[in-house]
Write a structure and sequence with these properties.
Helix 8 packs antiparallel against helix 9. With 220 residues, this protein is mainly α.
Length: 220
């Protein structure tokens, strides 16, 4: 048999095979729309899920206990705010095995009830680093720079423990520098020279300046 004849036979076979597979795929989508993945795998296809693992977790996340259900009902507007909701928020986040995907998806939705809860907490506990961190995370999904500046500035003014103040000031800097806000210089203007807070701010500014200088390549 000539090579051309062999090639023609192989080509006809491949076309027939492709048509059969196409008909099978069409039949699966027509008759098994809710279970098409497993049916396609039966005829030799491999399914690859390109979804972000976090998105899959968040989509499937469900409340696992009464506290989580109360929190979700509040986020969804089915429960009024109360002091107990704030306590529940802390409890759910600080659990030994927190349901992080459940909480995370409401941050990514920029849920306004969640924002109100965080701000209420900061109004009563202005220097709570965990709540300020929550506010920073919320800022990733809704631009609330002015709110972030307001609450971090107030926290730095109210906090008198030097170590905690230093941590707050650094967090403030890192949270807002991507938006072009120079938090350390803004704080520097708030405190008198030779005070403990001013010395801490001056030290942090110098530390950052030195880090920036060391990252600049030396030209010969």
């Amino acid at each position: 048999m000539r090579k051309k004849q062999k090639d023609d036979i192989l080509n006809d076979y491949q076309r027939l095979k492709d048509e059969i597979i196409r008909d099978q795929v069409d039949e699966i989508f027509r008759t098994k729309p809710d279970n098409y993945i497993s049916e396609l795998e039966k005829i030799g296809f491999q399914y690859y899920n390109d979804d972000d693992p976090e998105e899959v977790e968040e989509k499937n996340a469900q409340p696992e206990n009464r506290d989580q259900r109360d929190l979700v009902e509040y986020f969804e507007g089915d429960q009024e705010f109360s002091e107990r909701i704030l306590t529940t928020f802390f409890k759910v986040k600080d659990a030994k095995e927190p349901n992080l995907p459940l909480i995370r998806k409401y941050f990514k939705m920029a849920n306004q009830n969640l924002k109100s809860l965080i701000l209420y907490g900061l109004d009563h506990y202005p220097a709570r680093i965990d709540l300020l961190a929550d506010l920073v995370y919320f800022h990733e999904f809704e631009n609330i720079l002015s709110i972030l500046i307001k609450y971090y500035t107030r926290a730095c003014i109210k906090e008198n423990n030097p170590e905690t103040f230093s941590e707050l000031a650094q967090d403030f800097y890192y949270a807002t520098i991507p938006d072009g806000y120079e938090a350390l210089y803004a704080l520097r203007d708030l405190f008198e020279p030779n005070t403990t807070k001013r010395k801490i701010i001056d030290f942090l500014i110098q530390k950052n300046d030195n880090a920036e200088d060391s990252s600049i390549p030396i030209k010969f």
